[in-house]
């Protein structure tokens, strides 16, 4: 674990040598991302390394680029410069289809809100994670359906809700469903973007604990974004992004 | 792929109202295009059957088309006539099985009056190829008896026993209003009585009034050169004393024992000394007439094509408009690992399913219309269409299906270009 925010402007000459290892979940060197038409980079990170199974708490003020960095790591955005590796594979050099497959196989997302397809049932929303990857499907033991039910149970969602349409749930319940989906099929990396920001403190803490416990059980690395430093307690690693 | 189909179905059900409207517009456009095409075919068939059974049309030498229009459609003005004796001579030819003489010129309520013989009822056929049938009454037999076509009866509200007065020449309906012409251009002194009403035939006879040639001659005993002879008036009761053989005819329809004789007889008639006559084969004549009318059909088809284009554009518009609402949906799918190809497949499947549903529903609509509506349409308007898809229609539907699916590519292409993160950001 080595973290050092890049000085502004980025010093591109100081690229440190790196050795891709299979146990490295995330590796970042001199990553820069600018929104189109914007001259100031939204993300400018010199170095980040996260080993498999480690939990990173990513915090910083609003506008510091936390969500953007998370989207870059998840391959939802592409950086203009620098190196970003997931499990030894360079995201920037992968074809789009391979990147999509990597996401389906090994990643789990929990967003701040709007995680679920409103027209699918709770159970089908969780099962979405196993729909686009055969290996993810195969890792659901014994079946994706029973594994999804177990996760919903673990996250303390009443079983009666499984057949309900996602749009009928409260926000707190929706976030639990999203967490269950991210955990389905033993992902290698869970990316959570302020998953508890719309919950009250008690519910937030509970969901937090359940998410981290379950991630620890399946050996997944976790990167959690929050603006609330009070949540950082359960994390081994911390990174504060400077304000832009 | 199974996952995509399930998702597409669930997602489409979620937006069922707007999709149903897009589907409906495709349905209606398909039905319109097919119905126009089928009505055109049906009209063409009816047209070609106007001459069913007639092997030759004989008339005064002149233009082919005017003779055809006059003999088969009872339209246009006669520029020359032929003598009754020429018909008698023709009818005696051993190759001729039957002949129907026609004399036109008078009208009633805008409908042409055809002077002919009872042979007309034996040999003329309706658009379905069956012999003419009467829905009421009997063929004319005596003087001043008339048989009217189905449309005449329906439009003018006539039935057997109705008395009617013929007009001389082609006066338009409802124009003889108190004008001085009224006395001089109508045959008010010799009213006719309707003795029979023809069943709908989907042919020009629907719009005709049939009378005997002798009645026609009797009408004009005291006329000369299109006007009544001044000072001469022969009452209806006295016409029987006169020679009522027709003076002149407009055309003679001929049926042969052997159709193969048609060409030789046509040449003989053209080359015969004496009266300048000509004979035409109705089939090729009608074909050239259809060429003339084909412009209308082509216009209708072009309109149908435009309507189809509009409905396909509507389909693209609905899917594209839905894309705005679906930004988040597609982004969530991408975030859980769906590839660009999955998103493209999702949108293409939807366009394909909507198009094929619309096409099949449109086809079903036309077939149902053909089964349920056509008998009524034929009865009242002489319109209608056949049931059962034809080869070229299947090809058209396949083309439309391909076009609809390709139209789905436009929103799919747009969706593929949307960045995933874009869809996850709540927007104002």
TrEMBL record, chain A:
Keyword tRNA-binding appears in the UniProt entry: no
PANTHER family assigned: ATP-BINDING COMPONENT OF ABC TRANSPORTER-RELATED, IMPORT ATP-BINDING PROTEIN
Signal sequence region: none
Start and end residues of each ABC transporter domain: 26-244
GO cellular component annotations of the record: plasma membrane
Transmembrane spans: none
Protein name according to UniProt: ATP-binding cassette domain-containing protein
GO molecular function: ATP binding; ATP hydrolysis activity; transmembrane transporter activity
UniProt keyword list: ATP-binding, Cell membrane, Membrane, Nucleotide-binding
TrEMBL record, chain B:
Membrane topology: Multi-pass membrane protein
Sequence intervals crossing the membrane: 302-323, 344-374, 394-413
Coiled coil: none
InterPro entries reported for this sequence: ABC-4/HrtB_transporter (IPR051125), ABC3_permease_C (IPR003838), MacB_PCD (IPR025857)
Pfam families assigned to the protein according to its UniProt record, in alphabetical order: FtsX, MacB_PCD
Gene Ontology annotations for the cellular component aspect, listed alphabetically: plasma membrane
Keywords: Cell membrane, Membrane, Transmembrane, Transmembrane helix
Keyword Transmembrane in record: yes
Ranges for domain MacB-like periplasmic core: 20-216
The name this protein goes by in its record: ABC transporter permease
Domain ABC3 transporter permease C-terminal as annotated: residue spans: 303-419
Subcellular compartments: Cell membrane
Keyword Ubl conjugation applies: no
